[in-house]
Amino acid sequence: MERPEEPLIRPDSPEPRGPAVTPRRLWLYPTVILVLYGFFKEMRPSEPFLTPYLRQDMNLTEADIDNKVYPIWTYSYMCALVFVFLLTDLFLYKPVILFEGVTYLVTWALLIWGRGVGQMQLMQFVYGFATATEIAYYSYIYAAVPSSEYKKVTSYTRAAILSGDCVSGVIGQVLYTPHVLTLFQLNILSFSSICVALVFAILLPSVRTSLYFHTNTTPHTAPGDKDDGDNPSLDHETETEDTGTRRCERVKHTFTMLWSDFKMAYTQKQLLIWSLWWAFATCGEFQVSNYVQVLWEDIAPSKHNHVYNGGVEAVLKLLGAAVAFSVQYTNVNMALFGELILGAMSLLDAVLLMFEATTRSIWLAYGLYLIYHTTFSLLITVATYQIARNLTTRSYALVFGCNTFLALVMQTVLTLVLVDEHGLHTGPVTQFVVYSGYFFLIGAIFLTKAVYDLTVYGWASAWADRKDPGTGAPSPGTGVPSPGTGGEEQQHLQVERPHTEYSSTHHEAHRSAPL
After folding, report:
1. Are 137 and 13 within 8 A, CB to CB?
2. What pLDDT score was predicted for residue 70?
3. Residue among 129, 134, 126 at smallest CA distance from 109
4. Residue 98, Cβ density class (10 Å: 0-12 exposed, 13-18 middle, ≥19 buried)
5. Which of 141, 215, 305, 496 is a good FRET partner for 257, with 20 to 30 A between their CA atoms?
6. pLDDT computed for residue 502 by the predictor
7. Do residues 316 and 370 make contact, with C-beta atoms less than 8 angstroms apart?
8. Distance between CA atoms of 217 and 197, rounded to whole angstroms?
């Protein structure tokens, strides 16, 4: 993401005196504070045990949780995301990060002191805003550090999220299984960790520029405009009029840039294909992650069985990190074989989810979910890289924000029809059968298109071109560089990209009900 060339200076800091502050200190402070904030806000050991907590401590029924409480998150997240992207940019990140911390705090306060279906629905509503505002966490660092440090600080911020998730899973499991702490006390521990995170959010330095509303470039003033300093009686009126005009020009300029970036991104065929899969697959993953605890509760009720959700969560994060890290060593021409891989792996996910829905063994259900999530982490990492490699830094947040919004729109439709008490009101087993069919449909479409394109291109030619040549890879059936991977447009797009070794944690930052 774009940032000013001048070093970061806190608005309330005095003019620098004496020896100049080194560039390392300028980017190191906000990075360390943001990493600590990310770790503590994710260190919520009660999260993997939310469904057992709602069943045992809140005395909610499976139908209450599945059909009344959890769907609220989907609706809240979708509505909040519409505004959060622009407000994050307009308010220069830090206020939105503070709001994120506060909404997490309110979420866990409701979990601890709230009672009944209504207050748990309010908890999910607030949590939807918390997950939507996480875009500020991932965007802030690019405005606070030099572009030369993007790769390094991106790794740090992703690692903080992963570490917080993994540690919370381990701590939760270790403390809950031997009954060292109750589920209520685990929620107190989560609440305390979020309080610590909020302190670090307050300590974050402010930034002065953003992607759209606060750039270094401003709309040009009309020719002939000048300040009438010879007429003091008109000073205030002229200043007020000029300020209003500049604000209108700024807003118009901002939305012009947004529309220009949107068109530049989505007119690239390969980027559009990868974005569609990213959105459809993310929709399915949101649903699976949101309701898998309910399915496990149905298979092995926590009232009569030991649950190991925290251990599964910790292993899941480690496997996701390992898979994401291994992607950098792959050497496959994704312009040729990407759709084939997406289709085949989506079909595999469909099979895994079908077995997940029909098994009555909790250990097999745990294992199937780990395999499913590992394959999904692999695909989402590859898809994120393929999308980001053809984007400017400024377009990154816009494109992934649009992709996420599309995923949430589809998820809202699925939730309203399949899960909500006003829809079909289905149980967890039926839901997972439908999710299996959903991934089967995605896989069948992409696999069919991939086979057709490779047949037109020539299987022998495709095999000869199977290794990744970098940019300028031919698209199947065309024999020419795919849009966004060559020519003058690509030279423009090469300017200042974000770090693209993304782990699945970027995606998982937007998971569903605290899980």
Report:
1. no
2. 95
3. 126
4. middle
5. 141
6. 37
7. yes
8. 34
Calculate the alpha carbon distances from 132 to 82, 99, 410 in Å. Answer: 9, 11, 16
Indicate the residue type of 467: K
The yes-or-no verdict on residue 215 having pLDDT over 80 is no
CA angle 51, 54, 57 (to 5 degrees): 130
**Which runs of consecutive H residues, i.e. helices, occur in 359-420?**
362-388, 393-414
Query: Which DSSP category does 360 fall into?
Result: -
Q: Which amino acid is at 461?
A: S
Joined together, the tokens standing for residue 320 give 């996701």
**pLDDT for 24:** 60
DSSP class of 474: B
Q: Look up residue 498 and give its DSSP letter.
A: P
Residue with tokens 């279906």: 117
Q: In whole angstroms, give the CA distance from residue 329 to residue 191.
A: 39
Closest residue by Cα to residue 84 from 20, 43, 135: 135
Q: Is the model's pTM score more than 0.85?
A: no
Three-class DSSP labels, 290-322: HHHHHHHHHHCCCCCCCCCHHHHHHHHHHHHHH
| Dist. CA 298–CA 442, nearest whole Å | 27
**Amino acid, res. 64:** D
Contact between residue 509 and residue 134 where contact means Cβ atoms under 8 Å apart: yes
Q: CA-CA distance, 132 to 511, in Å (whole number)? A: 10
